[in-house]
Design brief:
Ribosomal Protein L13p, Chain: A; alpha/beta; four-stranded parallel beta sheet; about 150 residues
Length: about 150
């Protein structure tokens, strides 16, 4: 009997896309982001394939109430550069949280996804909202378990 490695076909990619909702209130940012990134990539499914988009959609609510440990609120900075002289911009977590609290979770999850076209496609399946409400009730999202799954 010959055994072959299973590889997903185009018909397999668009089936079984589910929607999950996560309440970020009181959750640690990094621990929350790892579970979200794994769900977006599809690593929680037995049909996971690293070269294909097998993941699900994730909705995050209460992003403004996510928790950071230690002194990251004042000592962690998000840095970007425009490419022009004097174009360096640094903003602390406190500043980002006060203006765009969704970006805390978006930046953490984006850093855990692949840096290619597939990673961008997977990132677009993430929806983050600062408050408790979201407009995706018609997709009937279910709760996402934040317990780490063991591979053993």
């Amino acid at each position: 009997m010959e055994r072959r490695t299973w590889s997903p076909k185009m018909a397999d990619l668009n089936t079984d896309k589910r929607w999950y909702v996560v309440d970020a209130e009181g959750k640690t940012l990094g621990r929350l982001a790892t579970v979200i990134a794994a769900t977006l990539r599809g690593k929680t499914k037995p049909t996971f394939s690293p070269h294909a988009d097998m993941g699900d959609f994730v909705i995050v609510v209460n992003a403004e109430k996510v928790v950071l440990t230690g002194k990251k609120e004042t000592q962690k900075f998000y840095t970007r550069h425009s490419g022009y002289p004097g174009g360096l911009r640094r903003r602390s977590v406190r500043e980002v949280r006060s203006t765009f609290p969704e970006r805390l979770i978006e930046n953490a999850v984006r850093g855990m996804l692949p840096r290619n076209a597939l990673g961008e496609k997977q990132f677009k399946k993430l929806r983050v909202y600062a408050g408790p409400d979201h407009p995706h009730a018609t997709q009937q999202p279910g709760p996402l378990s934040l317990e780490p799954t063991s591979a053993a």
